[in-house]
Design a protein that fits this description.
The structure holds 2 protein chains of 2 kinds. In chain A, 0% of the residues lie in helices and 53% in strands. Chain A is an all-beta fold. In chain B, the strands form 2 sheets. In chain B, strands 1, 3, 4, 7, 8 and 9 form a 6-stranded mixed beta sheet that branches. Chain A binds chain B through residues 35, 37, 44-47, 50, 59, 61-62, 95, 97, 101-105, 107-110, and chain B through 1, 33, 35, 37, 42-45, 48-49, 52, 54, 84, 86, 88, 94-101.
């Protein structure tokens, strides 16, 4: 059974950066892409980008180009998402999700990032 | 840019059939996935590749497609089906997009 466990909630000031981790277990880390999706309170799901854990290749939504970086640490089976130059409208729950044949079939529990002065 | 359009809300009485549509210019030829998200929880897949149901998803959930519109149908709606539902697809460049979400209310 695949499990994705994310880091805990974080509070940042405007202009700062945040790095959220997503530790995987239960399946081969390199076999599936890891995606990041965020959701502001009361709003819909917003796809941010993907990372291939095997190659390290990434693809980002145009909205986040230049502000987001997705990386991985293969020995610990952990994926990371760093978002820079934070603004108040970046306040959201951030999810990692594995993409497989059945779509985004496994999700982390979500990490609340609050941006506030 | 690639967009998916869903109705903001759908309301049905228990036992009735709920239909949630998702439309987009780029949908023809691309697979669509449907997710159910209950309050405070991460989404789960209820339909993948337009019409397939993952293990453990009840038979009352089904998907269909017609040109640039896909439909999630929930037959015999139960109170526990009340949730937000999102369609999800990708374009040819590998960019993923979610629909805006539909709130299903069971009256």
């Amino acid at each position: 059974q695949v499990q994705l466990v994310q880091s805990g909630a974080d509070v940042k000031k405007p202009g700062a950066s945040v790095k959220v981790s997503c530790k995987t277990s239960g399946d081969t880390f390199s076999n599936y892409e890891i995606n990041w999706v965020r959701q502001a309170t009361g709003q819909g799901l917003e796809w941010m980008g993907w990372m291939n854990p095997n190659s390290g290749n990434t693809g980002y939504a145009q909205k986040f180009q230049g502000r987001v970086t997705m990386t991985r640490d293969t020995p610990t089976r952990t994926a990371y998402m760093e978002l820079r130059s934070l603004r108040s409208d970046d306040t959201a729950v951030y999810y990692c999700a594995r993409s497989g044949e059945m779509g985004f079939d496994s999700w982390g529990q979500g990490t609340l990032v609050t941006v506030s002065s | 840019s690639f967009e998916l359009t869903q109705p903001p809300s759908v309301s049905v009485s228990p036992g009735q059939t709920a239909r949630i549509t998702c439309s987009g210019d780029a949908l023809s030829g691309q697979f669509v996935y449907w997710y159910q998200q209950k309050s405070g929880q991460a989404p789960i897949v209820v339909i993948y590749k337009d019409t397939k149901r993952p293990p453990g998803i009840l038979e009352r959930f089904s998907g269909s497609t017609s040109g640039r519109t896909v439909t999630l149908t929930i037959s015999g709606v139960q109170a526990e089906d009340e949730a937000d539902y999102y369609c999800h697809s990708s374009d040819s460049s590998g960019t993923w997009v979610f629909g805006g979400g539909t709130k299903l209310t069971v009256l």
